[in-house]
Amino acid sequence: MRASLIQLSVDASESADERRRRAASLVRGRKGDDLVVLPELWTAGAWAYDRWGADCEALDGPTAEAMSAAAREAGAWLHAGSIVERDRDGTLYNTALLFDPAGEPRGHYRKIHRYGFDTGEATLMGGGEDVVTVPTDFGVIGLAICYDLRFPELFRALLDTGAELIVVPAAWPAARLEHWRLLTRTRALEEQVFLLACCATGKHGGMQQGGHSAIVDPWGTVLAEARTAEQEETVTADLDMTEVARIRTELPVLRDRVLDRARS
Ligand SMILES: O=C(O)CCC(=O)C(=O)O
Residue limits of the CN hydrolase domain (predicted)? Predict the structure, then answer.
């Protein structure tokens, strides 16, 4: 199967609506791909806290509507990155959306680990509670977002719920690029999954986002990586999903787990 990460530029030069139209057109251009991925909070901007109130939306709001149509036109599964979701009670969540090639919503995930150390997302948003995996034509997708990468227990829970491929949209700061590179490879290697990590580029709210979106295989090998933190680009790789079972058999570390089994 062929997957592409659209490393979208997110800065203050465009409105959410303008960026939505541009993202939809980039997704429509990916005909022939099986899975297309967008970054975290690309409509409002992950670091544009002042925009969240105005640009928040419901699960079936304007981003979902535009992305459903774009998935259908591309004929691909679309992980539409995440939106600032506002639920009926008015609570905000950082919520990832997944559509199938018919444009049907097939799952959403509210970010469990909120970033900010008592500021920003950690105070402005509610935290998700559910570990989410979604069966697709090419395997089971697990969902995580950005800061979640620092919490291996979530990735182990995704593995235990059947994940073979984990998608991580992000707006990771360029200043911590080496953490991003290390954690994306580590999470792929330790769970023996394909890991698709799509980070925004561009600068807003005083933050240069790190780009370097990457597709990593279950051996920990980077199959494709964006070249820079500064430039919008699309990263594509062909994934042989049979590699997941092959590598888990060839190097059966998951079978050798001791502590998890002792606790259950
Ligand atoms: O963990 C980090 O260094 C960055 C996390 C982050 O930027 C986020 O979750 O939005």
Answer: 1-241
Q: How many folded domains does the chain comprise? A: 1
Structure letter (DSSP) for residue 225: E
40 is catalytic: yes
Q: Is pTM beyond 0.90 here?
A: yes
Residue 111 is among the residues annotated as catalytic for this protein: yes
CATH number at 118 reads 3.60.110.10
Residue 263 confidence class, pLDDT cut points 50, 70, 90: low
Helix (H) or strand (E) holding 49: helix 49-55
Residue 194 lies in domain: 2-263
Residue 183 Cα to ligand 1 midpoint, Å, equals: 12
HEC letters along 72-135: HHHCCEEEEEEEEEECCCCCEEEEEEEECCCCCEEEEEECCCCCCCCCCHHHHCCCCCCCCEEE
Catalytic residue among 56, 57, 85, 111: 111
204-231 confidence digits (pLDDT tens): 999 999 999 999 999 999 999 999 988 9
pLDDT of residue 260: 78
Atom of ligand 1 nearest to the CA of 176: 3
| Two tokens, residue 63 | 């981003």
Among 40, 85, 164, 191, the active-site one is: 40
**Parallel/antiparallel/unpaired status of strands 35-37 and 2-7:** parallel
The chain-wide mean pLDDT, for the chain, equals: 96
